[in-house]
Amino acid sequence: MQHSISFLALFFIACSPPVSVGGNGGRQGADAGPIANQDAGEPAPDSGRTPPDPSNRFEPGTVCDCSDECWGSETNPGICVKGICMQEAAGACAESGSRGECDERSRCWSMEGLEGSICWPDCDAYNCEGTCDNDGSCVPTADTSCDSECSDYCGNGGATTDRCDNVTCPEGSLCNPADGQCIESDQGLPAGSPPNCVDEIPALNDCDPNGGANSCHELIQFDPPRAQGYWDYPLNGERENDQYRSWARRDLMLLIRRATAATKCLSEDWEHAGYQDLGLGDMSEQNGDIPGTRENRPGHPAGTHVNGHDMDIAYYQIGQSNNWLRPVCEHVQNGEDQYHCVGQPVTLDVYRTALFIGRLHDSPNLRVIGVDGKIGPLVRSAIVQLCGAGWLRNSACNQLRMAYEETDLQQGWYRFHHHHLHISLSSPG
Ligand SMILES: [Zn+2]
User: Fold this and answer.
1) How remote is the CA of residue 310 from the centroid of ligand 1, in Å?
2) Alpha helices in 242-390 (DSSP H)
3) Mean per-residue pLDDT for 323-344?
4) DSSP track, 115-176
């Protein structure tokens, strides 16, 4: 899904994450009381329309024109916020995203430029006809709007905000959507703006979390071996007609395809290096075993790479003939392999790797992505840049699920990730 800039601006303002910079991170002050009382059952004085049947009001998350179309309770009256039904909070939000002022299925945020606090419906609790933001709240889109004659939450209300957008940040800097602060733009950030890739990016939800014939849980062989920006080439003893280490859960396969297709389409015009298909490494065996078990040589620690929810994947590289799994840095010291980067990752395509890792966050089931300790900091800052420049617009921008160890903390990421990243999903649905 592609959102327009105007929607993004709205969403960052509307639903600022609980990151607090210089005070309240753009939230209204704690003394902003509940929204001025407005009788949801009464039509606006000059609207001249008949109010809808109170027993037939819309649930939160539904498209609306007027506040009196939206269902609410005495404590949380229904309101129409820029075209989406929500509810007034019972009082000022105790903190961003608090539940105490709302029903159990909504969370409290103030909205910059508007008085008071609003209960934003949870996407997983209500049917959302707007769009889901990074916090899992249902928010208006660029296309939804409402009638300011019968809702107080349609216009921008003369919004004033101390959160940045890319208009307010000075030349040479970007707006970091995670905290609403301007950041310096990195020189390596690819120039230009993201192309429209809606048609090139395959769906993520093309499987059934409840099981059945197209189950998200089912272990399938990665197929076809090469398409959409990836390449499941034979490795670690596989042969072209025996890719026995390439079985993954269907939802994982869909996610990888989506992320490589997105990276390919979005980065096709990047000038620092051309796009090459991304090499896929070990997954699981057909019966869910650790790859190599068939040959009595399981290639991973117990508990990993079982049942198709883990995958090893190459890094995008610069100056190599392909993007197969290989070290992207110096890893030998005093003649001995250290199995981790001991120098800067010189052949790493930082920005493509960052874009790919960012797009892996399209899945709500992403558990973690593990990378080398010298790669992590580079990718992390590249992701912030990509978010600021609009290349990434998902939860990677404010809830990055990437792990790495700059020193050996015994968490399993310090060694053996200088030539690939490891992705792990939790159970679907
Ligand atoms: Zn792995």
Assistant:
1) 6
2) 250-267, 350-360, 376-388
3) 97
4) SSEEEEEBTTTS--SSEE-TTSBEE--TT----TTT-TBSS-TT---SS--TTTS-TTEEEE
| DSSP assignment letter at 27 | P
Distance 311 CA to ligand 1 centre (A): 6
pLDDT number for residue 33: 36
CA of 282 to the centre of ligand 1 (A): 7
- Domains of the chain in start order, with CATH, are 1-163 (no CATH), 219-425 (3.30.1380)
85-104 per-position pLDDT tens digit:
999 999 888 887 888 999 88
Q: Taking the mean position of all CA atoms in its chain, how far away is CA 335?
A: 41
Which range, 17-31, 95-109, 399-413, is most confident?
Answer: 399-413
Tell me, rounded to whole angstroms, the distance of Cα 240 from its chain centroid. Answer: 34
Give 413 Cα–ligand 1 centroid separation in angstroms: 10
Matching residue, tokens 């609003």: 118
Q: Measured in angstroms, how far is the CA atom of residue 335 from the centroid of ligand 1? A: 26
Confidence band of 343 (pLDDT split at 50, 70, 90): very high
State in Å: Cα 266 to ligand 1 middle.
26
pTM score of the predicted model: 0.65
Place of tokens 């005070």: 23
Token digits of residue 22: 């210089």
**Residue 404 CA, ligand 1 centroid: distance in Å:** 13
- Span from the CA of 283 to the centroid of ligand 1 (angstroms): 8
pLDDT of residue 38: 35
pLDDT, one tens digit per residue, over 168-227 is 788 889 998 888 889 999 989 999 999 999 999 999 889 999 999 999 999 999 999 999
